[in-house]
């Protein structure tokens, strides 16, 4: 192992390399991808002394463990988790010194779903279409980590930053998603629109980086004919044949053939990234 690397000791349930995503390629069918909890990703990089676009490791529920090839500064943000360096407790959401050869272990999420591990210099896997992000739907970018992987690191860009401000408030007891209706809300009955805002929904265990799926009441269609495939955006609330709304996230397709009843503005999607299975969901209409 060369000095500027991370050796993956424990990959966790699903750990991927993510930056701010790849833009400008939707016409080619390429999704944006990138960190689902963008504020947590940006905070980790800022505290580690990196630019916002440096690549971090996004973990899912069970964390990750890596061995440092060189002495480095690491920061863990997002879902709170126990952080240890060679078995000794270390700070969460604060810069942590990791000696060369030491193992940094990020434990399971205490609340929420996704933690973000930034190291000074960032994870320097090769870019694909201008981004280092893994896209789980298309397979672009680096594959999800597995035990024994070796990740190259970039050169540190600046000193770490310390803060006394609370960096993360934790997930709420209910996920509230404001929805701008359209473009296909007229494909649903007035009863369906009332159901969307009054129904008791919850996050399905089938959720992933592609979409946040829901359990709960079905939305009644007013128009039953097929819909030609049309463009989709991150935050679109699509309704498949079973009638349960699906919230598209960063790895979602750029086109789809089911009607979109509305769109959740992007500033509200970070909370969706931390919504664990079973969390109650409430939709509200933005007028």
Quick recap of the structure?
This protein is mostly beta strands and 287 residues long. The protein has helices at 38-48, 190-198, 269-273, and strands spanning 5-10, 16-18, 56-58, 64-68, 72-78, 81-85, 88-90, 96-98, 103-109, 115-119, 150-152, 175-181, 201-203, 211-215, 230-231, 236-238, 246-248, 255-256, 260-263, 280-285.
Which regions are unreliable across 5 or more consecutive residues at pLDDT < 50?
A: none
Principal-axes geometry comes out as elongated
Proportion of beta-strand residues: 25-35%
How many H/I helices? 3
Structural class: mainly beta
- The separation of the N and C termini measures 56 Å
Please trace the helix and strand order, writing H or E for each element: EEHEEEEEEEEEEHEEEEEEEHE
The major pleated sheet works out as: 7 strands, mixed, barrel
Could you characterize what this model shows?
The protein is 9% helix and 30% strand. The chain has helices spanning 38-48, 190-198, 269-273; strands spanning 5-10, 16-18, 56-58, 64-68, 72-78, 81-85, 88-90, 96-98, 103-109, 115-119, 150-152, 175-181, 201-203, 211-215, 230-231, 236-238, 246-248, 255-256, 260-263, 280-285. Strands 12-19-16-17-14-13-20 form a seven-stranded mixed beta barrel. Strands 7-6-9-4-1-11 form a six-stranded antiparallel beta sheet, with no helix packed on it. Strands 2-3-10-5-8 form a five-stranded antiparallel beta sheet, with helices on one face. The longest helix has 11 residues, at 38-48. The protein is elongated, with a radius of gyration of 20 Å.
